[in-house]
Amino acid sequence: MQNIPIAAKKNPFTLIGDQKIIIDYAAIYCRTPQELLKSTLFLEILTRFIRRIEEKRTPGYLFLRERRPDLKPEAIPDFVLRLLRLLVGHSAEEIIALNPDYGSVLNVGNDREWIYELRRDLYNYWRRIERYIFLEMPHGSGQKSIDIYHDQFMSGCEDLRALILRTNRLIGEHLSGKDPKVYRQLPAGANMAMLLERIDWKCPSFLQAFRDVEFIRITLIEPPLILYSKSNTRKGTFLEIPGPHGPITVDPSEWFCFPAKVGELTAFIFFHLDYIAQALSLSNLFELAEYDDINGKTPDLAVLFGVPGEGMKEYTEFFEDRQSGIITGMVKRSADVGYFGYFKKMTLTLHNVAMLNRGRLPLHGAMVHIKLKAGGYANIVLVGDSGAGKSETLEALRTIADEYFSDIKVIFDDMGSLAIKEDGRVHGYGTEIGAFVRLDDLHPKYAYEEVDRSIFINPDRKNARLIMPITAYHHVVMGYPVDMLFYANNYEHLGDDKPAVEFFSRADEALQVFRDGSRLAKGTTDEKGLVRTYFANPFGAQQREAKHEKVAAAVFARMFETGVKVGQVRTRLGIPGFEQEGPKAVAEKLYEVLKELAKRPGR
Questions:
Q1: Main-chain phi, psi angles of 349, to 5 degrees
Q2: Computed from CA positions of residues 89, 95, 101, 102, in that sequence, does the dihedral angle turn out positive or negative?
Q3: What's the pTM value of the predicted model, to 2 decimals?
Q4: Which of 7, 205, 387, 497 counts the most CB atoms within 10 A of its CB?
Q5: Which residue, among 523, 467, 576, 16, has the nearest Cα to 231 in the 3D structure?
Q6: Which CATH number does 361-433+470-597 carry?
Q7: Are the CB atoms for 570 and 500 separated by under 8 Å?
């Protein structure tokens, strides 16, 4: 840890409102509690804390005013700061002996208890702030140097956490005069952190403003992590435009880039620091690209999240640059787009357009590879728009897995593509290593099992979400032959003519159901009631409908020719009271179908 100060930006930290702070660790690097309490960061946090308790007139603040009426309000932060610096090295009794001025607030009994609680409240105030830390590698460090900086980055984050815990405990022990009986190892350092490097990439002229933006090489998350955003649903459509409205001007020092592997594609996701919480949460959703995917390369996709937005008609627009081939999405800077779904869906829209260009059929759905205990396997694809029950049906399959299945591998959980391969069969490919699922509709047992790796989004509100890693990248891009393809119908009750699992006999019959894209809106967007979306996919399919029709017709025809079973499942997820029972009934019926499929030769 002696080499931590690698580089430092001009500002050691940036506060975003009262809820977020972004810290350049090299600029505030501390080794001891004394250094920590002397830092500009601590003074800023303490000053804001005192201002807050003054506004609320808390008991701790009133105690200070009563015992030290001679102190002007603006002098209180300095008084508390000097007291805390003394308390990391001395007991309360020693401080009183050294400086009787502190006796008024450090007397034995209730008086000292007020200071003890003030210290606790300050600690909790710090922990309630969303804390993001970055460390910069020198420009041009390259892949060979990553191991050195990797170790410094990880040890730096761990040491900061340990230093804050140690400082807080020292002050508490010196106030109480005894050691704690219970130690709670709370996440007190960074909620999320990133190691940065400026890498030279092949930058087209229309992206010159982002040429020097630093790339994220490594991220760190302290889960379980709870994040809150002003908006809790995604609104509007993704409008395709001919090209950029004009030159884009940004300050590169206020931007970062999350280089993501979206299936086989490389996406440079540039984001303004206002959206750091949502952007770093992508770590649980997409594979982070390698150095060789960036250095000297042009990305397949680019997302510009938080641009000024001059000339934009919608919050979210995209275009295909004919010269470079980069499909680029722009999201206008606004508090209204501070929801994780905008990051995810914009990126996947660009992916889907790229897949159509390559003759693949993009799908808004989920795919799993299932092995049965009784022998055999099957690859199942579920298609449906947000709230249709795709992820929930997969979770229901997991709940019965112990009894019937030996393995379930997720290939994709929200967006993938189908391609006709050289062997004549249709294969499925994914995009994400994670899932962004509704907490309300998950089986409670599964939600708690995954809590230690998850990022929670607005858990106290409707449409509460969980972002969690669920599969390995090599499964995402391997390509699995499709055995069954279903449309997720969330709005129909079961009946004699409406079973939980139903198969189509003709390709045109199946295509019509998928084209209609009917579902009951679940509150994940601003839609309400029974709605229809072309192919249940507003993310590229409806923008390129003519091309999509040709690709879909070819892929569906090939599936029926090669014996792929195509149908629909009635999840009933949109019907109140069936949020768990509906997907469970589908899962149990699917098991019966799987048993028959597994009896085929070669299984």
A1: -60, -45
A2: positive
A3: 0.91
A4: 387
A5: 523
A6: 3.90.228.20
A7: yes
Which residues lie closer than 8 Å to 5 by C-beta, 6 or more apart?
26, 27, 29
Q: How many CB atoms lie within 10 A of CB 561?
A: 12
**Alpha-carbon distances, residue 334 vs 33, 273, 314 (angstroms):** 39, 12, 11
CATH number of 198-357: 3.40.449
If pLDDT is split at 50, 70 and 90, which confidence band does 3 have?
low
Give buried/exposed letters for 414-437 (b at 16+ CB in 10 A, else e): bbbbbbbeeeebbbbbbbbbbbbb
pLDDT band at 487 (very low <50, low <70, confident <90, very high): very high
Cα angle at 515 between 580 and 462, to 5 degrees? 35
Q: How many CB atoms lie within 10 A of CB 313?
A: 10
* Amino acid letter, 188: A
Cα 17 from Cα 561, distance rounded (Å): 59
The predicted-structure confidence for 60-84, as pLDDT tens digits, reads as follows 899 889 888 999 999 999 999 999 9
List the one residue out of 438, 297, 275 whose CA is nearest residue 346. Answer: 275
Extract the runs of DSSP E, i.e. beta strands, from 289-338: 301-307, 316-320, 327-332
Which has the closest alpha carbon to 339: 231, 424, 258?
231
Answer whether 363's CB lies under 8 Å from 380's CB.
Answer: no
Q: Which amino acid is at 370?
A: I
Q: Domain coordinates of the chain in residue numbers?
A: 13-176, 198-357, 361-433+470-597
Q: How many CB atoms lie within 10 A of CB 68?
A: 15
